Amino acid sequence: MSDVDPEATQRVHELMPYTRLLGVEVVRFDADEVRARVAWAPERCTSNGLLHGGVLMGLADAMGGMVAFANLPADATGTTTVNSATNFLRGVSAGHLHGVGRALHKGRTTVVVDTELFDDAGRLVGRVTQTQLVLR
Question: Where are the domains of the chain?
């Protein structure tokens, strides 16, 4: 992944304060694709120094919201997660957890998002598909 976008990161932290607590850094934020990352840190880990699954899900859920927000219809006021399916494939024990999110469906009532999670070596760590409800 390329460099962090400080303006997009700040905007996301303002819209979703939990992303600041989680340590989310936004790399790209537009309607086509969202890229973000979280640094490995011992306080974010479970046993054996692996990032906790909640960190993976926290990043993926935030990214799903970002993708949906970037693709909201003009009359919408926001979005909320109504369904999420996760597959964890490997652990992350150093470096960063990287996410790439893209819309699979951009509708009037829902936005469906696919988020892939990677480690620094580019290995797939997890995959999350979620449905975001469009709010009015």
Answer: 6-135
Per residue of the chain (136 residues), give pLDDT as tens. Answer: 459 999 999 999 999 999 999 999 999 999 999 999 999 999 999 989 999 999 999 999 999 999 999 999 999 999 999 999 999 999 999 999 999 999 999 999 999 999 999 999 999 999 999 999 999 9
> What is the DSSP secondary structure assignment for residue 23, as one 8-state letter?
T
Residues 105-126, buried b or exposed e (16+ Cβ, 10 A)? ebeeebbbbbbbbbbeeeeebb
Query: pTM of the prediction?
Result: 0.95
What is the CA angle 27-10-41, rounded to 5?
A: 65
User: Residue 123 to residues 37, 90, 92: CA-CA distances in angstroms?
Assistant: 14, 9, 10
CATH code, residues 6-135? 3.10.129.10
Name the pairing type of β-strands 124-135 and 110-118. Answer: antiparallel
